[in-house]
């Protein structure tokens, strides 16, 4: 398998694939729990961005578009022609969306569904030129619900902050470019207490597809997924398999 994708177990017979894009500062294993709940019916592949874990010696890429170019190329060459969907949380939602746009430029290789979580729609994503210093990044993590124990771990912070700085550059540089709406349907998910993504902002994602989509709100904040894995997996399974079988 490509250095860009991780699977959490041996290949199995499946009905569809789900390619997952981590949030800022996270690695592919942030989707381990979701993969376990969805297996074996849905085969989860998680994207491993450069600059973390086994790719820590690689330079991070600077924009969502650059990352999307790489992942789209990997998916085009995968050789698996079964139905698949993309799932991205927070920063990962923007990259998943840009990946879907690239895949749809060629006939027959696009996803059947795009799941976007914990992120405002790309047309209204606030482009900010300021990049927080390390103290500002820690404050942002605290606001999003990171535990004080994790923030007090100096070794963990020293390892995490360079990755976070790189990912926040990706977020701060993102600017939506006009283009045709997706042919894949969109499911927008969010936590009902997310300080970054109000339900109304999540609903605006649905304007980016020609197919009617849906929003799903779960109890919790920005990282609601960690507490609502079974519920999110159920929503993904219903929408993905419905779209895949219809396709």
Q: Could you walk me through the main structural features you see in this protein, from its secondary elements to its overall organization?
A:
There is one protein chain. This protein is α/β, with parallel strands linked by helices and 247 residues long. The protein is built from 8 helices and 7 strands. The model has no long low-confidence stretch (mean pLDDT 88).
SS elements, strand count? 7
Q: Percent range for helical residues?
A: 25-40%
- Give the percentage of residues in beta strands: 15-25%
Radius of gyration: 17 Å
Shape: globular
Enumerate the strands of the largest sheet in spatial order, edge to edge or round the barrel: 1-3-2-4-5-6-7
Low-confidence stretches: none
Compact summary:
The chain is α/β, with parallel strands linked by helices. The chain has helices at 32-38, 64-76, 91-103, 134-143, 148-151, 154-173, 199-203, 229-246, and strands at 5-7, 16-21, 42-47, 84-89, 113-117, 185-191, 214-218. The chain has a seven-stranded mixed β-sheet with strand order 1-3-2-4-5-6-7, sandwiched between helices.
């Amino acid at each position: 398998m490509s250095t860009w994708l991780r699977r959490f177990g041996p290949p199995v017979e499946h009905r569809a694939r789900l390619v997952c894009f981590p949030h800022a500062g996270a690695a592919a294993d942030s989707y381990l729990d979701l993969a376990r709940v969805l297996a074996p019916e849905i085969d989860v592949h998680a994207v491993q961005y450069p600059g973390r874990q086994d790719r820590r010696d690689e330079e991070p890429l600077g924009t969502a578009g650059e990352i999307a170019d790489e992942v789209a190329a990997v998916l085009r060459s995968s050789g698996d022609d079964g139905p698949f969907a993309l799932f991205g949380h927070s920063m990962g939602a923007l990259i998943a969306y840009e990946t879907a746009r690239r895949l749809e430029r060629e006939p027959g290789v696009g996803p059947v569904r795009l799941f976007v979580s914990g992120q405002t729609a790309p047309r209204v994503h606030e482009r900010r030129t300021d990049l927080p210093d390390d103290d500002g990044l820690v404050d942002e993590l605290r606001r999003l619900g990171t535990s004080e124990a994790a923030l007090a771990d100096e070794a963990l912070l020293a390892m995490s902050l360079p990755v976070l700085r790189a990912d926040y550059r990706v977020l701060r540089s993102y600017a939506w470019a006009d283009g045709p709406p997706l042919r894949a349907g969109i499911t927008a998910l969010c936590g009902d207490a997310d300080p970054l993504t109000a339900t109304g902002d999540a609903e605006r994602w649905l304007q980016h597809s020609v197919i009617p989509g849906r929003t799903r709100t779960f109890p919790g904040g920005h990282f609601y997924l960690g507490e609502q894995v079974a519920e999110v997996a159920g929503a993904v399974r219903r929408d993905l398999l419905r779209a895949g079988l219809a396709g």
